[in-house]
């Protein structure tokens, strides 16, 4: 399962390096890649994304499977593994720390901001025409990532295959613009950690050294989660000298760790 505003092509370079005895299914989350969007006027919600993943599991009638997720895809996987431990054989997280915490005293403000931002975003989207870009412009935008690092032109062109649709001699982005608003649950750190503690399957957590230095260990939202991951009896934490989008940029640094974990 891919990350925020990415798509299933994120794994195009990694999967050929993984054991061939497994059957791999990559999905575009709703509002990403070639998947349809949630209905207009709807607030994008974390639980609806979990439900979409659960529908995939039910569709394939899986009774046991392995979840591999990058960033948002890994965050969804941690919640799914805790909620449905009987289904999860193993969990693989690629630079995926749990979502940001909310202090109890900030709950009202956080919820109000989500609703206000949604209304402002809807008004903005209703009063504009979706921009049409050249391929070069799209690739340039795809290279700029959410964690302020940049991916190569080659990687951006891989994402391009599912990120846009042709229109008026150019291209428009497929991702749901409502993703610019927060989709995460408003939860305290204790609530989030309670979920993580309930993960029962063996879990491989591969963290980017770059993300760790710039985000995970210096941002108070994530320090507690990193410490919990490090102490969790089911978690195996590995650090890789790579950027956040390591499955796209340097998959050869991950394939050995993942293959050994799957054996």
Automatic annotation (TrEMBL):
- Superkingdom of this entry's organism? Eukaryota
Q: One GO molecular-function annotation for this sequence?
A: hydrolase activity
Q: Which PANTHER family match?
A: MONOACYLGLYCEROL LIPASE, SERINE HYDROLASE-LIKE PROTEIN DDB_G0286239
The UniProt entry's GO CC annotations, sorted and at most eight, read: membrane
**Swiss-Prot/TrEMBL keywords:** Hydrolase
SUPFAM superfamilies, per the entry: alpha/beta-Hydrolases
Record family assignment: Belongs to the AB hydrolase superfamily.
Residues forming the AB hydrolase-1 domain are 1-164
Q: Which protein is depicted?
A: Serine hydrolase-like protein
| Source species of the chain | Diaphorina citri (Asian citrus psyllid)
């Amino acid at each position: 399962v891919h990350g925020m505003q990415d798509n299933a092509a994120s794994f195009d370079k990694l999967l050929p390096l993984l054991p061939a005895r497994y059957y791999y299914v990559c999905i575009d989350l709703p509002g990403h890649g070639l998947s349809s969007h949630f209905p207009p006027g709807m607030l994008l919600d974390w639980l609806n994304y979990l439900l979409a993943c659960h529908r995939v599991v039910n569709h394939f009638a899986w009774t046991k499977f392995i979840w591999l997720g990058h960033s948002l895809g890994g965050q969804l996987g941690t919640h799914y593994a805790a909620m449905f431990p009987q289904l999860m054989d193993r969990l693989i997280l690629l630079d995926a720390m749990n979502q940001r915490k909310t202090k109890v005293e900030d709950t009202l403000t956080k919820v109000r901001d989500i609703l206000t931002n949604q209304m402002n975003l809807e008004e903005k989207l209703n009063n504009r025409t979706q921009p049409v870009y050249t391929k070069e412009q799209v690739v340039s935008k795809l290279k700029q990532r959410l964690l302020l690092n940049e991916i190569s032109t080659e990687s951006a062109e891989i994402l391009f295959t599912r990120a846009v649709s042709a229109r008026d001699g150019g291209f428009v982005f497929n991702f749901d613009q409502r993703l610019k608003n927060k989709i995460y649950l408003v939860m305290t750190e204790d609530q989030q950690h309670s979920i993580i503690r309930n993960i029962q399957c063996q879990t491989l957590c591969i963290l980017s050294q770059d993300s760790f230095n710039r985000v995970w260990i210096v941002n108070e939202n994530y320090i507690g989660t990193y410490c919990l991951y490090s102490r969790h009896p089911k978690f195996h934490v590995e650090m890789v000298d790579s950027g956040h989008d390591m499955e796209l940029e340097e998959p050869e640094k991950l394939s050995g760790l993942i293959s050994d974990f799957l054996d």
